[in-house]
Design a protein that fits this description.
- About 75% of the residues lie in helices and about 0% in strands.
- It is mainly alpha-helical and about 160 residues long.
- The chain has one domain.
- Helix 1 (about 1-25) runs antiparallel to helix 4 (about 115-140).
- The longest helix has 30 residues, at about 55-80.
Length: about 160
């Protein structure tokens, strides 16, 4: 249970960092540095050594997004595998269900870059973030089995 709480908190933090990085990527105009190529960038599969700073920013955003996506998948798996709270499982599942839509919207921001796509991409990010915040808060609200049993033992000896 404690591991799940930490995983949920780190995943939420990574998602927040990804949103900030996405804002920076958009503000720097780096999303357009790959031309209209997605998921490739100027014909390359991996941008480990990009030609310029905007390309590096775009590739770094994609890398952090991929890592965060796997963390969301892991958090949802852990919620269903070992966590008993129904609402924690539901909240993490919402984040996971919106994730593929968010990935496609991320690709659309590179290929079309319209205001509607940008707003929808950011809205989906906020839905994922809100679901992960709820997952984390509810995970910390859930009683830990070890904590509950020690409280019960302490209450019994106090009587």
């Amino acid at each position: 249970m404690v591991r799940f709480r930490h995983l949920a908190a780190v995943t939420t933090g990574m998602t927040f960092a990804l949103i900030l990085l996405g804002v920076y990527t958009a503000a720097a105009g780096a999303g357009l540095s790959c031309g209209a190529n997605w998921p490739l960038c100027n014909g390359g599969v991996f941008g480990l050594f990009p030609a310029n700073w905007p390309s590096f920013i775009e590739w770094f955003h994609r890398l952090v997004a991929m890592i965060t996506g796997f963390m969301i998948l892991g958090t949802t798996y852990a919620a269903w595998r070992g966590h008993k709270s129904r609402r924690t499982r539901l909240a993490s599942t919402v984040a996971l269900v919106v994730l593929p839509v968010q990935i496609l919207l991320g690709g659309a921001t590179v290929t079309t870059y319209t205001a509607l796509v940008q707003v929808t991409h950011h809205a989906a990010a906020l839905v994922i973030f809100a679901a992960l915040v709820a997952t984390t808060v509810w995970a910390y609200e859930s009683p830990d089995e070890a904590h509950t049993s020690s409280d019960t033992a302490a209450a019994t000896t106090a009587d």
